Amino acid sequence: MRIGLLTEGGYPYVSGEARLWCDRLVRGLEQHEFDIYALSRSQEQEDAGWLELPPQVGLVRTAPLWTARTGTGDDGACGGALGRRARRRFAALYAELAEAVIGGPDEADRFASALYGLAELARDEGGLGPALRSETAVRILERACRAPGARRAARGARVPDLLAFAAEVECALRPLSLDWYDDASGGSGGGGLGAVDLCHATSGGSAALPGLIAKRFHGVPLLVTEYGVRLRARYIAAGDAELSAPVRALLAAFHGRLAAEVYRQAAVITPGNAHARRWQERCGADRAKLRTVHPGMEASRFAEVGEREEPGEPDTLVWVGRIDPSKDLISLLHAFAEVRKEEPGARLRIVGAMPTDSGSGSGSGEGREAEAYLGHCKALAAQLFPDEATGLHAMGENPVSFEELGAPEAPGLAEVYGSGSVVVLSSVVEGFPISLVEAMFCGRATVSTDVGAVVEVIGGTGLVVPPRNPRALAEACVALLRDSDRRERLGAAARARALELFTVEQNVTAFRGIYLEIVSHCPVRREAVDDAGEPRPFAHPPEAHVPGRWTAPAAGGIGGTWLAGRSSGAGAPSWASASGDSRDSRDSRDGDGGGGGGGGREELAGVTRGRGEGDA
């Protein structure tokens, strides 16, 4: 099978989001071929280079979302000035898009119509960059904001606000102008997204937009995975950027419309946790399309510590994470002051890392903010815990230590977690708590604040307290420090849970099945050819195109949901229903492709081997 993997600000770059998860997925599904379509977020990210890619990656195409122009290097299309007829067409479509964003809640269809109209115009004209940044676009936005029925927050938008919003829209719609969508499928690695069997977007928003276009132009099914909800991240980023209220309102409406369309068109949506799932449902995702797939993490690196009988220092608390105000180290330090009143010998080890995502480092604004926050925490620790000396001639030592991950005193994660008996998470904002899963792999008892997906991850194997409540955090830590038997029971249960739910193997297995099911229910209808470009006349069995009862929704199954809205002539045959026979035929393809499967195996081969590939 040929997969178009769509990323934004991550894989295949060495820095960014979800890069490790994507790399493990691609390497774990070596029977498939992957084409990578990556949107980068900064010059620093591009300069840092790519990860070493496995042989099953046949094509990598990149485009920036950070440049001031729509130029896309050697892989995209810039697009020139539009002619008179195209300008009129653009003005009508952009006005429709603006009115759908600024208008009332029942404008989803209108937004989608305008979005796909702009995509078709970009395809016909070679790009829309200059038009999206033009004075015409700004005037259209101004008229939409002043029109009756516009959002109240948008009515007060001034020219600087409209310019800022137009720039954000141009950046978000930049994928429309790329030349990624041709459907030539003659040879290995040839063609674009129109030639793949499945588009897999590793986040919503701009990353999923190429998948929407491939589905619109070529009928390629779309799978969307979100471990951190892109819409939520954009809401937070808009607040951090100190944008005006009208710009924030307009951006929230635009990205909300785009997210709703992505969820509507996706064949399957795989949130990484219940927290992300709730966001997706609130944004309009059909519950029948949602399937939670927890992110996979490498458990082997923590095996030695997890299986070790030594429990670590019984009076040491460990915090591990990225230095950031959202981690609320201030509350942790105040909580530890309460812990010391009950357990004078307790120690707190804070092991952190400066933010490096998307090419940011200590020289960036985010890095400087992290350094300032760390300095504030160190000053508070020195104030709360004056250096203690055991005698008149001994040097004092602070019970709180600040260490950098990778430094000589904290060389590796496994040893850091193994050095203490309790791992603490004090965040006020959290998505999927990676540090908790790592602590669970190490068999450590945990105390966490109830944020994000913490409760879902812990599942009763640790103590959970409200955020921004130092007293509750301190009481939970003291309870575990005083009860070694309870710590051991919780640590063993946590390790067993993590090995069952959060390994790379379970993640890869889940996506292997999802890939095959989507393609079996939503096959791409194209002429099957071999490596030489010659037609393969018997690749598609004729019964796959015959309307019948098998195109109706299957009772209690997922096939009916995927087939909803499709024409009866393009429906899945009876072997693709959610029955035991369907699973058997699917399982037969998970091996070497031989034996069993009957008509299902033959049809799937026609889809996935359209380019002469026999082992996908």
From TrEMBL:
Cleaved signal peptide residues: none
InterPro entries (UniProt xref): DUF3492, Glycosyltransferase_grp1
GO molecular function: glycosyltransferase activity
Transmembrane stretches, start-end: none
Extent of Basic and acidic residues compositional bias: 581-592, 600-616
Domain DUF3492: from-to ranges: 1-287
Region Disordered, residue ranges: 532-616
Pfam families noted in UniProt: DUF3492, Glyco_trans_1_4
Low complexity bias (residue ranges): 564-580
Protein name, UniProt field: DUF3492 domain-containing protein
Lineage of producing organism: Bacteria, Bacillati, Actinomycetota, Actinomycetes, Kitasatosporales
